[in-house]
Predict the 3D structure of the following.
Amino acid sequence: MLKGIQKKIVDYYKKASIHNIISVSFTIVAVLGMIVVGGALYLRFSNLTEEMVAKNNQAILDQVNLNLDSYLRKMMKISDTMYYRGIKKKDLSSENINKEMDILYEANKDFLISISLFSEHGDIIASYPVQQLKENIDPRGNEWFQDALEKSENLHFSTPHVQNLFYDPNYKYTWVVSLSRAVEITEDGKAKRGVLLVDMNFSGIEEICKNVDLGQNAYVYLMDGNGEIIYHPRQQLIYTNLIEETNYKNAKLEDGNYLENFQGNKRMINIKTVGYTGWKIVSVSPIEDIVSGASDFRAFAIFIMLFAIFSLISINMYVSSRIANPIMELEKAVKEFENGVENLNIPETGSQEVQHLAKAIKLMISQMNILMDNIVKEQEEKRKSELNALQSQINPHFLYNTLDSIVWMIENENYSGAITMVTSLARFFRISISKGRNIITVKDELEHARNYLTIQSIRYKNKFDYEIEAQEEALDLQCIKLIVQPLIENAIYHGMEYMDGDGNILVKAYLEEKDLYIDIIDNGLGMPQELAEELLVRKEKHNSKKGSGIGLKNVHERIQLYFGKEYGLKIFSEPDEGTIIRIHMPARKYFDNKGE
Amino acid sequence: MVIRKRTIFIFLLIILITSSFILLPKGAKGKVRVYKVSVIVRGKSSEVWRIVKNGMEQAASDLNVNISFITLLEDNNVEEQKELIKREIMNGTDGILISPADYNSLSKIIEDFRKEIPIVLFESNIETKEKFTYISCDNYELGKKLANEVIRNGNTRSKIKILRSGFNISSEKEKYEGFIDEISLSKNTYEFIDLPKDEAEIYKSISEILKKEDTKVVVAFEPNILEIAGKLKKEYRAETALYGIGSTSLIISLMEEKIINAIAMQNEFNLGYLGIKAMVSEIENEKINESKITSTTINTYNMYSEENQKILFPIIR
């Protein structure tokens, strides 16, 4: 699986264009970097927030604890004052403590519901501000009363309860927290036991716990050591089971910081035990609240990350295209060059290196083209000079024999024959030279052939007849110099030598289907057609001692070189019947413009 | 290539913009909507609705609701309730939480107005085929529990007089039915006393019953009637046992004095709290969690038990 993915990635990289490689790699690296840095920062931040909230809660709880402690001490002080300054000093059979109670109550009436003193038997001895005990009530049944007498050395804070001791004309029922203690009262000089009750209202405790600023949905509640709730901002909802609180569970925990899962929500719990009473202050902060700041931060971080990634991808794409596009264009151009497209336009854009590369390639291509052209030209030149050399290489035998014939004629005083001979020879050479041109008119070529035939027919003592025919319109057409003469020479040597007077050579120039044809027809020995066709292909043998030295093949190649492969020679021959050598050339008008 | 690049670019841009819309507003959470809810009860402004109101106020502060708590000039006055519904809708309330004063005659108007604004019923119901959110305890069960309490206190062959008012209120009817069904299982006999509307007449009527020695038990189903009966019993020092439903301070105090023997009551704080909660859910078109409201009986002896204290004397902040 993993290997497959790896292979795919590697494959992708192998195939991908430079543009994709650059942009994808850069982007991946950048995005990974962003995510790692962003994630690390976010984690650090959210951990920090949690720690800070925990510390903050702890500090707030300490403050609450301090306030509550001082509040409770104040209550205890009221109780102490009442006891040591009032009750202890007086013999209650003769004196009363109403005045002291009155003063004490009035001084603290914001927090107090009532102060009352009971005898051991539950009879009321003194009470302020309400005085009338309800008929059916016996204080001795109450927990605070029993606690006070059982552990007489302590002060006892009760859990909240409805105070139902006193008659109230308005039927008012108040929730109180009772502070009770056992006291020693003196009646008629005898010490008796009694219970001093100070009922506190909630407002003091509420004041301390309510205004704690922990956060939007965070709150502080107060419970006794057993988990009974003393103060809770939504106390009644808990009492009527509309909501739940983890107070009983938390009562067992030590002071400190805890995380709990409550109804699917994570909450941070901080517990602090209040001195003396064993009450516990608990702060509750939903984690959601704590991290809501963090989640805002996260949203912002993600946004910033997205923005950065977006910018990076854009920049990467731009940069990679700036780098890659010129290279790709260059590559495209090179591909075209490979496919043989000429006149390439190689772009010179992009970075300096690529530009340099493009310039170098351009230079290289142009140099290559020049070289190629030079090679072609050289080859052609070489060929032509070869031909020219051949052309100028008129067989000395021919010249010698001709001159010999002329001498012989003069000796025999055949002056007219000698004159003809010399004239023909002169014309022959003039045309041969023809100002160094390669192309002459058909007319001149045929004239050349005629002069040659004249000379040869005299030399061979009229062994053969000859005839030259030409269509009028063919005469002005272009013809390569010295192509007919070698063919005639060929016909004479191979066809006429053994003919006794009935040899016949016909040279015919004509137009057919807009092409020029010159046929050299002899009725000599002939040869098999296969052999005839071979003549144009096989390697030339330097066998000719008598001829002009320019072979059939040479003529054939020259024509093809000038006019193209579709032109050239064709040989039709049959043994004992004769041979037709057909020159095929394009019909082009001759212009006397010197040169080829 | 150029086109592909452009599509990628536009695609990324769109992602960026949408993400900014999704992510950034989270930072500034919208203002908390405060609903105006009108609560129309079926009684006079009295202590009877005290705990219910407490519950509602607690819910109001928890759920960001502004409550206008509207009482009637006369108990169970149908016409007044109709007027109040219209008035409150005119005043642009977001929802009405009503305890209908009549089972039948309010059906049409409530059904009609519900098309305009959310209406939730609490405490008593109306006759309707439509699906209404109705928050109440099981009143039949409440009646049964009271009957049980009467029997448990030693009434096996007693003559019981039931003070009846509010004839056409679903909750009252159910309570009667539950009480009668339970009491019929015993050998006690019962009799309905239909009370007149006028308060002075009610006093007269109840006085007569209490003076008669043959009646051992009197049961009052409405708190204000129970108060009257309690006061009269105290005055006459009558021997008749007195039972009832509801918990005003006076009733509690009378119970403490053992004048009222026992009461049955629903968890009124929860009734109020859940009423408002249901109202908000209705306004917000959310699914309503129909939690049952519990009921209990409280007598002279257990009224200060830890549990009962919490129900009788809700702690309000």
